[in-house]
Amino acid sequence: EKAGYPHFMLKEIFEQPRSMADCMRGRIDPDKGTIQLGGIADVMDDLANANRVIIAACGTSWHSGLVGEYLFEYLAKTPVEVEYASEFRYSDPLIGEGDVMLVISQSGETADTLAALREAKERGALVLGICNVVGSTISRETDAGVFTHAGPEIGVASTKAFTAQVVVLTMMALALGIKKGHIDNKKAKKYIKELNAIPDKVDQILKECDDDTKEMAKMFTYAPNFLYLGRSYNFPVALEGALKLKEISYIHAEGYPAAEMKHGPIALIDEMMPVVVIAATTHTNDKMISNIEEVKARKGRIISIMNKENSDVKELSEYSISIPSTFDVFSPLLTVIPLQLLSYYIAVNRGCNVDQPRNLAKSVTVE
Ligand code: F6R
């Protein structure tokens, strides 16, 4: 059932070109420049007229929510707040009619996310969901929603569910941007054509970067700490890269927006500290280069995820993984892939139980 792979996690990482394409199938039309999301068709007007959207989720799904915030605000000009579902629940939240609550959950059973949904519903908000498991409690209790269609995810560390969630958020943001008149048909075609090309680019990354990440993993297997830095759309990917590493390899790792480094974490950097920089967002490239120089000046070891043509970043890095370029807004769908592989290979080298890490469960049904 692992289709020849040693672990479900690796199988699921390699399934992503297909799971992402499945998620888009029948929903996007690159020639016409249109997007049809049947599950939320009836509430598109409400969504377009919403005062704001509050996204609530936990863990990796919360990270996809953070990517969603950038997508909705950039593509649809809809204000978004992202909340940890657990915190939302206990904060006497200011939410009501005219607001939309969007919950994101792979399993559709996470207790805190379910509680946040119920709280928002009780206060009169429209509640929407992005779930992977059809028939799950969250998918049944939301007013409307979009399934990710990533297929069953068995590995405890979420991989293909994350990318499918980001694909759904991208399609929702584009559909909303089109509806609200912020994206004209010409632009819509451009975006949708590029989105449609993403699964092939992921395939290319898996083919070209697998050996490199394996080699890199050997060098850093016994590092006690890792820092992940990203900016803009790739800041949530830094958080996700760090979470993947800590949950399966038990190495302490933290993700930061790159500019925050000098407000504290820079004190940690020395010749023992690997720093993974996600330098594939073109509009923040110069700033990222300054951050890399700051790390190098303190002898930190730079591992970069960068666009193929970015020789500046390559020259400054001890190790670099080149990925195909795409629009900055779609970049998380590509940059997360090598980070999943890196954490996988490090965990395997350390002899960890990759598919079932200690202390973790696939769905967290207690608060
Ligand atoms: C990380 C991971 C967890 C889940 C979180 C939410 O790899 O698996 O952080 O993302 O428990 O789970 P769902 O999405 O099922 O609500």
UniProtKB/TrEMBL annotation:
The keyword Transferase applies. It comes from Rhodohalobacter barkolensis. This is Glutamine--fructose-6-phosphate aminotransferase [isomerizing]. Keywords: Aminotransferase, Cytoplasm, Glutamine amidotransferase, Repeat, Transferase. Signal peptide: none annotated. It comes from the Bacteria. The keyword Phosphoprotein does not apply. GO terms for molecular function: carbohydrate derivative binding; glutamine-fructose-6-phosphate transaminase (isomerizing) activity. It is found in: Cytoplasm. Its EC number is 2.6.1.16. The active site is at K362. Residues 43-183, 216-357 form the SIS domain. Transmembrane segments: none annotated. It catalyses: D-fructose 6-phosphate + L-glutamine = D-glucosamine 6-phosphate + L-glutamate. Homodimer. Catalyzes the first step in hexosamine metabolism, converting fructose-6P into glucosamine-6P using glutamine as a nitrogen source. One of its GO terms (biological process) is protein N-linked glycosylation.
